[in-house]
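worker-3 :: picked GNAT family N-acetyltransferase
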Amino acid sequence: MNRISEVSFRAVSLTTASRFAEASALYREVFGYLDPAYGLNPRLLGALASNGGSVVGILDESDRLVAFAYGFCGTDRRGFYHYSQSAVVAAGQQGRGLGRMLKHAQREVALSHGMSRMRWTYDPAQIRNAHFNLDVLGARGRWFAPDMYGPGTDRVVIEWDLTRDEPAALDEAELTELVVPTDPKELRKAFEGLLGKGLVAVSCRRLPDGTDAYYFGPADHA
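worker-3 :: tokens ->
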């Protein structure tokens, strides 16, 4: 039996002080943050929820918060977009589709405020996250941010077209393959080179020999 069918989950917008406090506690628990400097202020979540941001959660059958995400409005020369700052799923709840539920709950919030794009970042060495972002959701890796949070924290900036209900079809003939190198410096160099050519990351898959590969395609077709 599929595990997700064993428990009923529901996505909700968090709106109360008690839920904001619960979300902050879950955030610290999942990331293992003990230093208050890395905490998440419940009052900030309340301000975001009241001013166009997304503060969404997944509740289980006992009304317990088991996953949480938050984001806010961003802007650049192309206009406004929703920025998803963080998403967490409680230990023992991974693999139940909760990450996808969170992203789609944020999508609904962003669309309700007139935004058609969402952005977030991920570590390009985290292959599972890459596959989820690119293949499951259909988002695209458009920019590279070296040492985004300090040395050794390279990130890919993802952009998700919220007007699409399903990932766009890929033309395999147009794709450039990158077998994922084990050296982070080589991975950085490859991403900077390929994205610098105007390509975008469109897929990340496990190869038959057990290695992993990214695939890049033209930005205007992605």
